[in-house]
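In the design runs reported in the main text, the only information available to the sequence generator was the tokenized backbone. The following block is the verbatim input for one such run; it is reproduced so that readers can re-run the procedure and compare outputs position by position.
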């Protein structure tokens, strides 16, 4: 069988299994609810004993699966908080308090069903990303249009994206124009208009007429496929905070047993001990933390931030230090035209047009940047003739009857372009910038200053990080000390580390982690050289908008949009979600502890305690769901 079809079959089988599991929880909750209601009707109107028998049967129906679950945990060496509920239900059965026991069973089964609904709502953004993943594409074969599985698309295929369809793979727009809706990926609500030659990201939707595109990578390597992969990985993760809930049993179970035992000894009534166990049933711990943290995952996905599991939420919620890479992270990562200075009366745009026309035939990174800059300004370029190039130094050719050269000052001087007219180094030659001279007919016509500019959204980034509770912001880069110092000053970071190799970045992260006042440590980067530091950091955040990279694979969080300020959003979402999770647990446990005291002195009966615990559960679950909303 085709591997892709096998994968689809496995996914469908897994989905069916999850569906059956959810139905089983709901059916059990309905069954126990029916036992409570039918037993109550019989108890009041017909036969109290028959009513008690129905309650007992409902109690057993909830006790059996719980016993199996706790037994499996104990065999693994895990003492979980479910053990308290098991003791309460078993005690209710032994002491004949069937109504209290069946209410606890209803609380657990209903809580499980409610958790399923709540988690489903909290996962909405993640689920939407998965459900939007395209399964088929329409590929051109000559004059024919064939429908094929997305997995069969190859680099170079021409694909037709019909109105309303999701772009199946990354590619280049072939049609003259296209209107694309990227809201599912970026959270930005307005569609964007693109021209021929524009880059198309898989996962965006066609919001206009049908268009043609040429694929630039296989579907399995496309940006959206990587997002889906990250989402699936995030769904499989379980937060340490959720596991930490079971650790509460290490002190809460003995405390409950001690209070219950003391109440029994003082009163001589085992029912008081049962009442203590009933109100101590720790559903707030079981339900609140995962709901709040998964809500945080959903909220982050809405902002274009894929977190690989709720553990990242917890660590972001406690982060104290953020280490930022420079190139491609806080800067654009590609040269940009910063200034055009004519020297002989030529207009700036004409100077740029001449330089870009000659640079069309150069593969140098600065030449490509000049060409792109000219095209963005709408300039029409002309192909030069008799071109010669000294790679890395300059290029010269004949253009519209003029001899035009573009390159370094020394190279233009060698080619005889007005030695005395070549300007001396200026502020434009500051670290991190390159000045390209343009010569025409033996004279220097002007200069073009290139630089790797700060991202617009990086301005004010450090201030927002400090406002979000980050105490130390560090710039770590492989660039020279002069360049790093200038960028660090413009950003306003607290510390700058320059001239770093990938191993040196590891050392910076490790040193920060060794200081209790600096951790947890968040590392933000985008390149392969950042991958080791991203993996070592408490939370590695990769700028993954360009698609699949090693950094995205090793990071704990991936920002799928080209915005560095989403790092602040991730931290704020982590702070809020983790705070709500902790608040829900502490409040729920506090109310349970207070109820235990009242139960120990005989003020709360087992049935009353079970109903009270239901109310506590509802309060903490509703509170946990606040993590879905903006602060």
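Verbatim output:
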């Amino acid at each position: 069988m085709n591997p892709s079809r096998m994968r689809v079959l496995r996914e469908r089988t897994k989905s069916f299994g999850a569906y059956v599991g959810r139905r089983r929880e709901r059916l059990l909750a309905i069954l126990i609810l029916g036992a409570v209601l039918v037993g109550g009707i019989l108890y009041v109107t017909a036969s109290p004993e028959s009513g008690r028998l129905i309650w007992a049967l409902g109690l057993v129906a909830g006790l059996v699966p719980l016993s199996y679950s706790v037994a499996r945990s104990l065999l693994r060496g895990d003492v979980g908080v479910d053990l308290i509920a098991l003791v309460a239900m078993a005690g209710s059965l032994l002491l004949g308090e069937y109504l209290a026991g069946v209410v606890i069973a209803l609380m657990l089964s209903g809580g499980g069903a409610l958790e399923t609904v709540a988690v489903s709502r909290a996962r909405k953004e993640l689920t939407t990303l998965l459900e939007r993943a395209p399964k088929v594409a329409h590929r051109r074969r000559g004059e024919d249009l064939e429908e094929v599985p997305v997995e069969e698309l190859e680099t170079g295929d021409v694909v037709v994206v019909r109105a309303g369809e999701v772009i199946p793979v990354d590619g280049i727009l072939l049609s003259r124009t296209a209107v694309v809706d990227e809201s599912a990926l970026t959270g930005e609500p307005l569609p964007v208009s693109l021209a021929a030659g524009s880059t198309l990201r898989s996962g965006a939707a066609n919001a206009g007429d049908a268009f043609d595109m040429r694929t630039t990578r296989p579907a399995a390597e496309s940006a959206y496929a990587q997002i889906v992969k990250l989402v699936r990985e995030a769904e499989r993760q379980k937060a340490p905070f959720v596991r930490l809930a079971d650790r509460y049993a290490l002190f809460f179970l003995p405390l409950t047993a001690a209070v219950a035992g003391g109440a029994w000894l003082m009163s001589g009534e085992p029912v008081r001990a049962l009442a203590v166990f009933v109100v101590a049933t720790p559903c707030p711990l079981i339900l609140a933390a995962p709901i709040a943290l998964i809500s945080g995952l959903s909220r982050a996905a809405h902002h274009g931030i894929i977190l690989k599991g709720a553990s990242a939420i917890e660590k972001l919620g406690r982060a104290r230090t953020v280490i930022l890479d420079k190139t491609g992270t806080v800067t654009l990562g590609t040269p940009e035209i910063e200034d055009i200075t004519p020297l002989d009366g030529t207009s700036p745009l004409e100077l740029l047009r001449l330089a870009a026309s000659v640079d069309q035939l150069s593969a140098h990174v600065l030449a490509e940047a000049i060409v792109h800059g000219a095209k963005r300004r709408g300039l029409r370029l002309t192909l030069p003739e008799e071109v010669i190039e000294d790679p890395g130094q300059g290029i010269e050719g004949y253009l519209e009857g003029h001899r035009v050269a573009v390159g370094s000052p020394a190279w233009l001087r060698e080619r005889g372009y007005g030695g005395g007219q070549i300007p001396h180094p200026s502020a434009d030659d500051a670290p991190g910038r390159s000045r390209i001279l343009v010569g025409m007919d033996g004279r220097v016509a002007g200069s073009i200053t290139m630089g790797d500019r700060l991202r617009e959204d990086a301005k004010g980034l450090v201030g927002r990080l400090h406002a979000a509770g980050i105490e130390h912001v560090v710039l770590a880069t492989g660039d020279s000390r002069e360049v790093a110092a200038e960028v660090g000053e413009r950003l306003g970071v607290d510390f700058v580390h320059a001239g770093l190799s990938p191993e040196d970045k590891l050392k910076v992260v490790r040193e920060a982690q060794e200081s209790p006042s600096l951790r947890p440590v968040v590392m933000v980067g985008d390149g392969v050289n950042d991958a080791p530091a991203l993996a070592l950091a408490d939370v590695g955040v990769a700028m993954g908008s360009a698609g699949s990279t090693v950094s995205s694979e090793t990071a704990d969080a991936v920002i799928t949009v080209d915005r560095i300020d989403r790092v602040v959003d991730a931290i704020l979402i982590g702070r809020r979600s983790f705070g709500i999770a902790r608040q829900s647990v502490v409040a729920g446990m506090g109310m349970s502890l207070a109820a235990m005291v009242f139960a120990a002195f005989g003020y709360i009966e087992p049935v009353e305690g079970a109903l009270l615990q239901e109310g506590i559960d509802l309060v903490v679950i509703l509170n946990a769901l606040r993590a879905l909303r903006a602060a």
